[in-house]
Amino acid sequence: MTEHDSAGDRRNDVSREQAEDAVRTLLRWAGEDPAREGLLDTPKRVVKAYRDWFSGYETDPDAYLLRTFEEVGGYDEMIVLRDIEYESHCEHHMAPIIGRVHVGYLPDGKVVGISKLARVVDAFARRFQVQEKMTAQIARCIQDALQPRGVGVVVEGAHECMTTRGVHKRGVSMVTSKMLGCFRDDARTRAEFLRFIEAGGKR
């Protein structure tokens, strides 16, 4: 079986060959010659990179949170996972968004492995995104799966669509948050979560 015969070479009724042709079209539009030696394998490389960058479309974030643990010795305090690095792409310009996610929840009888929270972040980040939407998606996924007393999600992102084009402003980051349950209704719970995040930034 050759590389182009594999089942993974077709996504959403688009073949690998069609995707590579699209890259060649963009190269020509940019003023390049896709037949030039240095660009001969570029379409293959770009398609392979897209499969990695946008693998989130092939994963189910909810599935990562199916296995939970209830034997936690009565632990019922806040759980926070800070500084989850992510790489995403802006759906408006297809430019990278790079940043960090902070997740917290107040369990109500069950918890989940911390690596699963990071995987949920990746599942949503590895799609074309708007940061505000991604923030809400992560929070809602955790809330629906664990049914905790509350969830807090804060996302920081540097958007290449404004640093490498347009206004060309570097060193700018966007911060979004989504609070559910007691994180939204109880100012003390929300403040505790934000203190945990700030403590991480002072290392």
Please name the defining characteristics of this protein:
single chain; 203 residues; alpha+beta; 5-stranded mixed β-sheet; two-stranded antiparallel ribbon; 7 strands; 40% helix; elongated; disordered N terminus
Strand and helix order: EEHHHEEHEHEHEHH
Major sheet: order of its strands? 5-3-4-6-7
Q: Which structural category do the helix and sheet elements fall into?
A: alpha+beta
H/I helix tally: 8
Topology:
Elements: E1 10-11, E2 14-15, H1 16-30, H2 42-53, H3 61-64, E3 79-90, E4 96-106, H4 114-125, E5 128-129, H5 131-146, E6 150-159, H6 160-163, E7 174-181, H7 182-185, H8 187-201
Parallel strand pairs: 3-5
Antiparallel strand pairs: 1-2, 3-4, 4-6, 6-7
Helix pairs in contact: 1-2, 4-5
Q: What does it look like?
A:
It is a single chain. This protein has 203 residues and is α+β, with helices and mostly antiparallel strands. It is built from eight helices and seven strands, in the order ββαααββαβαβαβαα. The chain has helices at 16-30, 42-53, 61-64, 114-125, 131-146, 160-163, 182-185, 187-201; strands at 10-11, 14-15, 79-90, 96-106, 128-129, 150-159, 174-181. The chain has a five-stranded mixed sheet with strand order 5-3-4-6-7. Strand 3 and strand 4 form a beta hairpin. Helix 1 (16-30) crosses helix 2 and helix 4 (114-125) runs antiparallel to helix 5. It starts with 9 loop residues before the first strand and ends with a helix. The relative contact order is 0.13. Mean pLDDT is 92; it is low at 1-7.
Q: Could you write a compact summary of the structure shown?
A:
The protein has helices spanning 16-30, 42-53, 61-64, 114-125, 131-146, 160-163, 182-185, 187-201, and strands at residues 10-11, 14-15, 79-90, 96-106, 128-129, 150-159, 174-181. The chain is an alpha+beta fold and 203 residues long.
